[in-house]
Predict the 3D structure of the following.
Amino acid sequence: MSTRGLKILSLLFFVLWIGIVFAFPIAKMAPVLDGSVAITGSSLDEVFGRLRGPIELAILSTMVSIAIGLVFLGLFPKVASARLDHAFSSLFLLPTPLTIAIFLWVGRKLDIHFGFGLVVSAQVFLNAPYLARELWRTRLSLPVGEIEVAQTLGAGRVAVFRRFVGPHLIFRTLPVVVQVFLWCLGSFALVLILGGGPPVDSLQTETYAALKAGPDSWSLAFAWMFAEWGVALIAILLALLTGSEREGSMIRPYPKNRFGDWLAFVLFVVPLVLIGLDFFEGSFSFTETASFWSGQGIQSLVNSTLMGAAVAVLTLFGASLILLSIRTYPFIRFFFWVFAAVPMTALYFLFWAATDFESELAHPLLFVTLISSTFLLPSAVRFLVPYSLRMNRSAYETALTFGAPPVRAFFSSERRALARAAKLWCALAFLAGFAESQVSLFMSRSQLITLPIYCLRLQSQYRFSEAAVGMVILFIVWCAVNVALRSSEEGSP
Amino acid sequence: MNHTLRIEGLRFWIDTFRLEADFKVSAGERVAILAPSGSGKTTLLRFILGLEQKKNQDEGELYFGDQRLDSVPSWKRNLGYVPQDYGLFINETTAKNLEFPLELRHVPSAARQEKVKEALTRVGLENRAELRASLLSGGEKQRLALARALIFEPAALLLDEPFSALDPELRAEARGWVLDFLKERSIPCLLVTHDAADVAALSTRVIRYENGMFKG
């Protein structure tokens, strides 16, 4: 394909993405907009009355995660290592059913059966290490050269903190804190199962409940969606205001630390031990595990595997085209991020209201896979942007002088970097698709059983023996993806 | 007042590497340090600047005039420094880079602006005042770094291969700038360089590296 053809294809793909995510559901919704989705005064009152709960939950989880992250920052010289950094990010990727299994066990041990404390603990378990990792990376990316020169110019500790460390800390960590806050605010399956129902709710469980109740509650669902959008916009604006573009903050390598490496190993093994304990307590029976291979279990495994593979390929292909369109037509960057900032709940709502049981859901796996890929696309673009920015311009230009057309020159000069980026993203996207539960629960109206949904259902019915095989498979896939990420991460931006 | 920079019997360890030095640089002297790579030239400058701290096993003293500097924090030493990569605040404008040391010394705003304007004119960057430092050319960066190191009238000037990133033509021009600046100020200047042309053009004396020690 010629360069011009590829550019036009990238533009068409961008238009298609906007069409699938926004135009299609809005157009399909138009005929049914008979007032049932108008936000009424009573629905607004109900939302405002109950908004405090999800926000309190998200704030508390985020604050505790920050506090633990700061403790880890204090421990930096003693424990920081590249392996521990990786273990921290691995925990963040732990599939929801595994996290739930851990905290159901913890809850039973502490005699806490569902509720606020358990949800906060689970969210902190996932987010605190991630925040600690970001704080470490902030420390490793401090502009040391500038700070030293500032000291020679007369800047004391306070001036150095005010002019360099503080802004750097805000620039690097505030977007991550906002991300964690939004994640807690929109947390779905974790709150749905560990929360045990009202009064422990997130904005997404509220929206889900309203949507599930039928068209009469759509007004309320619409109001919840706007509530999430509003809170998310405030948080995103805050992050954007502080996160202006800064140069010169490369992350230096971690110092070698054997203790940190051991701690990483322990962190990796702890979930396995806790999940194992969860299985073998109470009424666990090996004979019941066999039901996985004969019933819905094997079908859910096939569904999840297909979904993981398809999501990886589709998002990689789509994100590459979007990146190309952004590079070719710079105005697209603005539109892309405006659309990408719309909360998932809004999109779920649009799709929920627009989909037709009889037609779209005739192939629920295809439908959910396409929607998951579409939703994951902004994350793929965000992931691949640093790689595209690190392009080896000199090699590219040399290839041009040899007579290679631009596309060929780009691929030949960037082959290694592209292969690494593709491998990393495919591993992440496969895990995201394989362990996906949110879109499947929301969108398929219980018609599609993926492995996480299979496990979540059995967990919520205390049928742990039957869930065991699915959980082990989820754990193995999680481990395999993390090993793949670890081996591909060397030299990544 | 005595404006001599003096190092006496320094034995400074970084892991297994030992840095030894014993020399002085008087006011108005421009002393070049010529030594092979890995001999500790930059570490020596960093020690003088207070960016490398003395530990229990280290020996020796650092003086400026009669004042002992070893235990003085780097931000109170009042030494001008131009590192090899210029150490510019790349996310700040050219003018903000120059204002920074004056702000720290509580120079009133009007006087500060005046001094910045004067320095910008002096180094030919008056049209670059509001440009982000990262966008300056190599020669402009070098001039800005030098102007910033001198704008607060430091007690001494330390230059760490400040011309290494410049092409031969710009190097010659930059040497001229530095020489003009230093001739106006009677302060000690210590210059680390690999280039014999820098030594010939700028220095009044050379400190050599002999038997693992900087001496002169």
About this structure: The interface with chain B takes residues 145-146, 148-156, 159, 163, 246-248 of chain A (CB under 8 Å). Residues 107 and 113 of chain A are 6 Å apart (CA to CA).
